[in-house]
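Quarterly update, task 2.4: zinc ion-bound model.
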Amino acid sequence: MKPTHIEHIGIAVKSLETAIPVYEKLFGLSCYAIEEVAEQKVKTAFFKVGQTKIELLESTDPEGPIGKFLEKKGEGVHHIAFAVDGLAETLTEMDAAGVKLVDKTPRKGAEGLNIAFIHPKETIGVLTELCEKPE
Ligand code: ZN
């Protein structure tokens, strides 16, 4: 597996309403999409920086993954996402090699991407997502 680029960096925030203007004012970026991913219990806001995006994540449920992260660690970087070609095959290869995966098969993430997470124990404490644009 060789990632083609960093697709996005996910940042957990308490409030999109507060966080969006920070990115807009400080970096002159504009938020181009806000999307709720009900399954993940998050509301996301996206900014483009070259071909990489910043994904702000606001929890919609304290029991969801971002809700728990905020409770434990507070606001900050939550995950890094690499773009890969052939996500399903990559996961099969990693699984066969004994890499601990959160998702052994791709699932749907924000922006219609197919995504999967690697267990942070495998990546020196950094939760890492792999994603692929569907054909
Ligand atoms: Zn992500």
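Highlight for this quarter: The mean pLDDT is 95.
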